[in-house]
What we know:
Two copies of one chain form a homodimer.
Chain A: E1 2-3, H1 14-38, H2 43-48, H3 50-60, E2 75-78, H4 85-94, E3 97-98, E4 106-107, H5 146-159, E5 166-171, H6 178-189, E6 195-201, H7 216-225, E7 229-234, H8 238-246, E8 255-260, H9 285-299, H10 329-335, H11 339-344, H12 349-363, E9 367-371, H13 375-378, H14 380-386, E10 391-393, H15 398-410, E11 414-420, H16 421-424, H17 428-436, E12 442-446, H18 464-469, E13 483-486, H19 491-503, E14 507-511, E15 533-536, E16 541-545, H20 549-562, E17 567-571, E18 574-575, H21 580-587, E19 592-596, H22 604-615, E20 619-623, H23 635-641, H24 646-657
Parallel strand pairs in A: 1-7, 2-5, 5-6, 6-8, 7-8, 9-10, 9-11, 11-12, 12-14, 13-14, 16-17, 16-19, 19-20
Antiparallel strand pairs in A: 3-4, 13-18, 15-17
Amino acid sequence: MTVAASRNDQETNVSTANSVHAKAIELGKQVVRMTTAAGSGHPSSGLALSHIVVELMYRQMRYEVSDPWNRGNDRLVLSIGHAVPIVYAAYADLGGVVGTDPDQRRPLSVDDLSGLRELSSVLDGHPNPAEGFPFFDAATGSLGQGLSVAAGLAAAARLDGIEKRIFVVAGDGESREGQVWEAADFIVDQKLKNVCVIFSCNGHGQAAEVSLQQSPEAIGAKAAAFGWHVIEVDGHDPDELSAALSSVATYDKPTAIIARTVKGWGVDLMQGSNFHGKPVPADQVEAACAELDATGEGLGASAGDPGRPKAPSSTAAQKAGRSGGLLPFEDALRRVGLAGALEKKRLATRRAYGAALVALGDVDSRVVALDGDVGNSTFAEMFAREHEGRFFECKIAEQNIVSVGAGMSAAGKIPFASSFAKFLARATDQIDMATISRANLKIVGSHSGVSLGADGPSQMSLSDIAYFRSMTRVDNGRGVAACHVFHPCDAISTYRFVELMAEIDGLCFLRTHRPDAPFIYPFDESFALRGCKSLRSGEHLTLVSCGYMLHNVLKAAGKLAEQGIECNVFDAYTFPLDASPILEAARGAGGVILTVEDNYIGGLHAELAEAAALTGSVRVSGLTVNRIPKSAKTADEVFTHVGVGLDRIISAATELAGS
Amino acid sequence: MTVAASRNDQETNVSTANSVHAKAIELGKQVVRMTTAAGSGHPSSGLALSHIVVELMYRQMRYEVSDPWNRGNDRLVLSIGHAVPIVYAAYADLGGVVGTDPDQRRPLSVDDLSGLRELSSVLDGHPNPAEGFPFFDAATGSLGQGLSVAAGLAAAARLDGIEKRIFVVAGDGESREGQVWEAADFIVDQKLKNVCVIFSCNGHGQAAEVSLQQSPEAIGAKAAAFGWHVIEVDGHDPDELSAALSSVATYDKPTAIIARTVKGWGVDLMQGSNFHGKPVPADQVEAACAELDATGEGLGASAGDPGRPKAPSSTAAQKAGRSGGLLPFEDALRRVGLAGALEKKRLATRRAYGAALVALGDVDSRVVALDGDVGNSTFAEMFAREHEGRFFECKIAEQNIVSVGAGMSAAGKIPFASSFAKFLARATDQIDMATISRANLKIVGSHSGVSLGADGPSQMSLSDIAYFRSMTRVDNGRGVAACHVFHPCDAISTYRFVELMAEIDGLCFLRTHRPDAPFIYPFDESFALRGCKSLRSGEHLTLVSCGYMLHNVLKAAGKLAEQGIECNVFDAYTFPLDASPILEAARGAGGVILTVEDNYIGGLHAELAEAAALTGSVRVSGLTVNRIPKSAKTADEVFTHVGVGLDRIISAATELAGS
Lengths: 659, 659
């Protein structure tokens, strides 16, 4: 552990330190004023960062304030998102550019600060690049995710040959989030020594003081044990900060700076545990600002130039786009040694995913893959073999996987993040944050549903469909659904869905299954967004399913036909879904639909019931997993146990067709 | 860091060590046989634990094999769930009792082992107490959660004055999960020195070798930095294990034992990275068993008594149940200093939650509360003040909160776990596991929906309703829904829902909101499971809502009435919901329903559409949050921004009433 040399040990530039103090005070006053104007916010957390932000944004970071989209820029991830007003104040002072895209760019002005948190403002309550603050790469504010985002940015920069540094500012209390330590492991594994995290150790959480487990000493000891270079500084001493930050990326490890800070620095009223997330009352604003000025005077603060951001040292590489179409399906299977499946005409959708990802990676260098020690189950391992440098083994840490993917997306990559769908559920908040960031992230959940059988419910994802569907009728602000769900029944559709996912700019979820499944579609079948496929026609009833379950439904339709009940069968493979072809077919077949799903409620049944209930002309019943599953030797046994077995489908269909 | 004394340094009982070896070999052979019989499983991971399990289950743990429900028993949490066959083998050998409840108890026999993973077997693929293996307290198999469960068991035992030890066996690769370190912090904070985690460091993950970040040295250094007493042992040396395990709870810290183990111990074929999750081929079983025997011979294994479990040292305290009814609502508010709300007739539902929890805690000592540094936002702080010993400040670590709650539930507590609903989303997998465990856990998510306004989308939970609803039509195997959702519109209903939640034996979710809301119900109103409330009657249209949004809908109904459009208004406050009263009312009012929700799709609209589409006699339209929100100063501005503002409700209703 290094302790930054004290002021007297260095040849310091006293006038620079004094101008850093002066700038910190100037920005601090803006923070007080803007949060009071907004009527909410966290000014005391911002004041704790005042020197850190000045040192980073004026003196250490190499970036174009006029071009926040420049991929050569050093980046700042504000993991402690609620402290954001201090960054807004600095950025306005520097005339940094804002806007939702380069065509709408304009410099932020100091006057803009008073609009903090307004509907029309680019200055959201927490960092939110999608609303027009592109200085940030990802939405933060749900704590503990920033270091993972930074890891994604750093890994992407290395892939692109860009030399830049990624700074993260995190809170002490925030370091309680396990994801921080998942990211710490990943960054060491990946040797991303250009990442620097600064822990602002002000000792105060929201409800109380932070635990001794999050003391500066404890965080330092932990970071060291995780393999980081640790430097302790006084977070309000410009020289110590400068010395520490200047040394980043000169060690053979990533750097953790433990900065002792004061929550509400410079204003007595705002200090202590009782002033979290509160603006200063309007009638005390001037007194608070005067106190900040007095604090500055005591430190010898003097107006002067603390510096301006240096230009980035790297020229940003141009994004490489798609270089052509994917291999034909058969060739893609042969490419990864799956030619046998073409003979057998069956393949698990998870294996088809691997083949598709390899083929996609062949034609698009932006595609990267992340997995959590289950690449030989999700078949991300195929990509790892063929595109080694673009595969990231994240080990058993799903929250980190998702947020690293969000960071990579911000750097122009198209990340596919895979694990068992069940395990990815622990990254739900991270997926939410990626969605707010409008990350171009592809989540691939394998072994979903109960069809995996013997391993039992701890491995079965059953609420995933309800969760991901919930976002599919939500506009992301760019006319695109906030999430697209793809649920393939066979290898061919899986292959095409992976291709579609890469074409959508936004979050997608692909749900794959463990068992081998027969091919349903011709090798060259094409699939549309919001589409569905009619697989069988009949006049008595309409059956709708997707994924592995569709095969059971087709079997049921065959048996029903033997009984004289002829069914339409649809593969409703995606959300959002245009249900009109299904409703129309149903109207011609008794006006009754039966949906069958290998998941809990909130999926196909809900989607079709919502569509049907708009007009009321079609009735919809649904079979979903109706009890908590357990292990059984075969998928069919579990299907029966949870109410979606073949016999149950047939009996439900028979009843409906006769109703 | 302590290194266990080597064999020569101790007065060891050589014959005991030899009989431990012999038992390890005997159980190892069972593991090989049972997984091959099952056709799946993870025998190599089990063999790595063979000595650890013998030492724990025969020699160290104090428990009644004939009474796994005895609350004085030492407990074992198998966090590395896939290694479970070795525990099954030991338990069968000991004649341990199985069954879903004490009335159905029977001893497990060695013959039962061959039924591993069968539908009819209590021996699920991963630990699953609810299917009849009560030796375990919680379902595991999704990695990284066991230490938190253990913390919950230990904290509950201390509350009950029971002296017992909680052992956790975890994997090295598993320690990559951040939750492990969240639990490590919590256990130190809570001084739960009777918890001992044994990391089985076999060096192999599923897809590859574990990272150097998860080497025995790294895990040991991390555990020490987190404040644990660390002991390194050879995980196949009975004497080292015995010395280390005997010393648990004699230190002033919790104990982490770093056990170097061999994956596939004793059988060459099963070692290395390529043998994860694979049974031995049937024709090689005898050779593998012979190799185990030979390994034993080389170690001097000799049949003999390795010991039998000692009886628990504590007599388990009787569960205290409910001692009476809750205070009247008004008195409960006065009790926590909220009398003013009775005058103003308005109170935020999150504050009412705090008051209700205090009143519940007054009459039921099983009730405990957990929160993550936001108790002054969720108002769990009221409980902390009034029932201090039963409040657990878990700091900013939501995954740990949920799994600690699951552990407490297993020990007979009724845990209420609160945070912002948004942040609890990162514990989705943990909630899934608690559901599989049939934990009696109450999740309380505050600040949900967009009504919190200025803080912006990073704090807003919008998919929570879809997620929790997905489980509400799922039977937990005991005739109870796997989840009950409560979504109160006012303080009075909040109060009653907390009471209902305590009466349900299973998972519940309470969704509270940030803003103050006027009282809708009389102070003594009562509420039923699956119920809804008619708040207004009309002949033209039926409006259905819940939560804070209901107030907007009532306003809209008032304005619509001014336009001559008379609406039914229902508060559909719960899932599962009996929708029949709403459908019946709708049939008498034009046959059209409009739902209005402050969440993404998958909630009320889906629930009512599903119910309506069964018969097709009622049409249902829905308004839900239709775009990713951003900050705005007021809830109403955000409502308008995301398509659920008052004007939009009125225009949608007007259109429907005229259709």
